[in-house]
Design a protein that fits this description.
It contains 21 helices and no strands. It is an all-alpha fold. The protein has one domain. GO terms for molecular function: oxidoreductase activity.
Length: 409
């Protein structure tokens, strides 16, 4: 095959909701070529030099000193840190130099489009983004390699991911030094700490697993939160306008830039994201036994909704697992769902499809009624705030992610 001939369709996009989404929403033939795939795979050996240098500095300094400098620069800016070490200065000079293409009005518009759907967004977040990400076995290796028990940490990870997502998708939160901006950079630092820890492991298999938390894996995670999220919401009946989809992608493009994704890899538009997803589906979505273990842990986390509620709790736990598992199964397709061990419940799947139809009808009414979209945004914002407060009352939310950094070390 010539390097410029298009490659065959990957199995990942041939079944389930992804097949339907490809037919409905992909911008024509998005298949890549062998040369494009080879060029993409080179990023598997590239990490995040600015963040990695900063973590090396933090590890050299006395305990707590480097992190305190980071937090001060995060809150007040690098100019507020006198005689800042070169590594800290380079990191924040870069992140504070907002790219020319960033449009804060569009960032806020994208956030509002997410906010107006309220807590419905939690289904694509957990059942499509997180569960789908487990199909990429190379990307799961740092999760397993940190040494924390997957089964014990899955509920905490689900809660922290949800809390982080709520932070970064709030209008205005990505302005420099605001809480969403800080949340992105803290997670970037966590990734660098984990990467340093994995690079110290004598059993890390670079040939099979690539560089830990490399550029491909980071941009793949970005696509799960951007393109896959939008596709999931549409499959659940949400109707986004073309401008709303573009603004959501603009929001995640900036988040990806703050996360340290190199400009040559960072998708600028929805079309870019589709072509990148196709290449990732061809090369990265290769599940293994760790994928199964992570999927089982995530389902167990959903089951935890019934804990301590007696007989009613057992019903809630069963319903939660079946409902979330059905969303994942419908989107990921039969083969992927069977491999991950997801429940196959036709009744629950029918309920999901019926709910999508109801959502579509309600969305059609919203688009036709003046003022309904603004009202939906306010209702969605209220629901998100209440849910975030409830998470804070039930779990100890550490927005600094210090525990993850200690675990990595």
């Amino acid at each position: 095959m010539s390097g410029d001939q298009r490659l065959p369709e990957p199995d990942f996009l041939r079944t389930g909701g992804f097949r339907l989404a490809t037919l409905l929403y992909a911008p024509g033939d998005v298949r890549g070529t062998r040369r494009q795939l080879d060029a993409l795979r080179e990023y598997a050996q590239t990490a995040d030099p600015l963040a990695d240098d900063l973590v090396a500095l933090i590890e050299r300094l006395p305990d707590g000193e480097g992190r305190a400098l980071f937090e001060r620069a995060l809150a007040d800016g690098i100019d507020a840190v006198p005689d800042a070490p070169a590594e800290l200065d380079a990191f924040f000079r870069h992140t504070e130099a907002t790219p020319y293409w960033v449009d804060h009005a569009r960032l806020d518009a994208g956030a509002r489009a997410i906010v107006r759907t309220g807590l419905l967004g939690l289904f694509p977040l957990g059942d499509m983004a997180l569960m789908g990400g487990y199909l990429s076995s190379r990307a799961t290796k740092p999760l397993v390699g940190t040494g924390a028990l997957i089964e014990d940490m899955a509920p905490k990870r689900l809660v922290e991911t949800t809390h982080w997502w709520l932070d970064v998708t709030t209008p205005g939160a990505l302005r420099t030094h605001e809480h969403g901006y800080a949340a992105v950079l803290r997670v970037r630092l966590v990734h660098a700490h984990v990467r340093a820890a994995m690079n110290r492991r004598p059993d890390w298999d670079y040939g099979a697993w690539d560089r830990p938390i490399n550029q491909i894996q980071t941009v793949g995670t970005l696509l799960l939160f951007s393109l896959v999220y939008v596709l999931g919401m549409q499959l659940l009946g949400v109707r986004y306008s073309g401008d709303e989809r573009a603004d959501i992608h603009h929001l995640w493009r900036y988040i990806g830039w703050l996360m340290g994704i190199t400009d040559g890899l960072l998708p600028a538009t929805e079309d870019d994201s589709w072509r990148l997803l196709w290449l990732l589906a061809t090369s990265e979505f290769i599940p293994d036994d760790d994928s199964k273990r992570l999927a089982a842990a995530l389902l167990a986390a959903h089951e935890g909704v019934g804990q301590g509620r007696g007989a009613l709790g057992k019903v809630l736990a069963h319903t939660s697992v079946r409902l979330h598992g059905s969303v994942s199964r419908l989107v990921l397709g039969k083969d992927n769902a069977d491999f991950l061990g997801l429940p196959n419940d036709p009744v629950a799947q029918g309920a999901v499809l019926a709910g999508a139809a109801v959502n579509f009808a309600a969305e059609s009414v919203r688009r036709a009624v003046p003022g309904a979209t603004v009202a939906a945004e306010r209702i969605g914002e209220l629901g998100r705030r209440q849910y975030q407060r409830r998470l804070g009352s039930l779990f100890r939310i550490d927005r600094t992610y210090a525990r993850h950094m200690r675990t990595a070390a």
